[in-house]
Design goal:
- The chain has 207 residues and is α+β, with helices and mostly antiparallel strands.
- Helix content is 16%, strand content 30%.
- It contains 4 helices and 12 strands.
- It has helices at 4-8, 37-48, 85-96, 168-172, and strands at 28-31, 60-63, 106-112, 118-121, 132-137, 141-147, 153-158, 163-166, 174-178, 183-186, 189-192, 196-202.
- The strands form 3 sheets. A 6-stranded antiparallel β-sheet has the order 1-8-5-12-3-2. Strands 4-9-6-7 form a 4-stranded antiparallel β-sheet. Strands 10-11 form a two-stranded antiparallel ribbon.
- A hairpin with a 2-residue loop joins β10 (183-186) and β11.
- The longest helix is centred in the first third of the chain and has 12 residues, at 37-48.
- It starts with a helix and ends in a 5-residue tail after the last strand.
């Protein structure tokens, strides 16, 4: 069972930001092991205890507000209720640690099986506040970043239990995506993908 203590007990060194290479976009923060392996296992158990939706080619879960992928909008009619307790605890932890400037009220969970990815995109600008945070569970994968105007590209390997935070330039001027493949090549190493679950926390804007 996930308890508040379990989510806040990570050693301080696990919360230090990864010193990123200069080629990655400004506004990107990466925490290489944001949660312990045990908390990661507990989160996967909690996620899998809830029903998955088959709205997309990959399975998803929505909490807080449902996001309409086709119309790219959110309104009050899409409110689903509060985030689950474990989601609220994670969001509160990120706020207390200064990683998020707010307590998130929207959470989307994506399941990626080997071979599945996501088209390069920028999260809906009028729908969500500046900062988004995504926690990776169970498997590594290579995320690609493309500058929207210059088409400059770079990549970052997202490890299991890592936290990726995008704000400012990284949030608005760079697309992020995951190629549809079963293996990644990174630093001259071949890395097999397994089932990966991502938890993305955001703050909704409703006008």
């Amino acid at each position: 069972m996930l308890t508040q203590l379990a989510l806040f007990e990570s050693p301080a060194q696990q919360v230090n930001a990864y010193v990123k290479p200069i080629c990655l976009p400004a506004g990107l923060q990466y925490y290489s092991q944001y949660i312990s392996s045990q908390v990661a296992r507990d989160l996967i158990t909690a996620v899998d205890a809830s029903p998955w939706l088959d709205d997309l080619k990959r399975r998803v879960q929505h909490y807080g507000y449902r996001y309409d992928y086709k119309s790219r909008r959110i309104n009050y009619d899409m409110y689903l209720g509060a985030l689950p307790d474990w989601g609220q605890q994670l969001s509160l932890r990120m706020y207390v640690e200064g990683i998020l400037p707010f307590v998130a009220d929207q959470l989307i969970i994506n399941e990626y099986l080997p071979g599945q990815g996501i088209t390069p995109h920028i999260d809906c600008e009028p729908c969500f506040e500046d900062t988004i945070a995504s926690l990776s569970l169970n498997s590594s994968c290579l995320m690609d970043f493309t500058q929207a105007e210059t088409l400059e590209t770079t990549s970052l390997l997202l490890d299991p239990s890592s936290l990726l935070v995008l704000s400012g330039e990284a949030r608005y001027n760079w697309k992020h995506g995951i190629a549809n493949r079963k293996k990644d090549k990174y630093n001259n190493q071949i890395i097999e993908r397994n089932r990966r679950i991502s938890l993305t926390f955001r703050k909704v804007i409703i006008k």
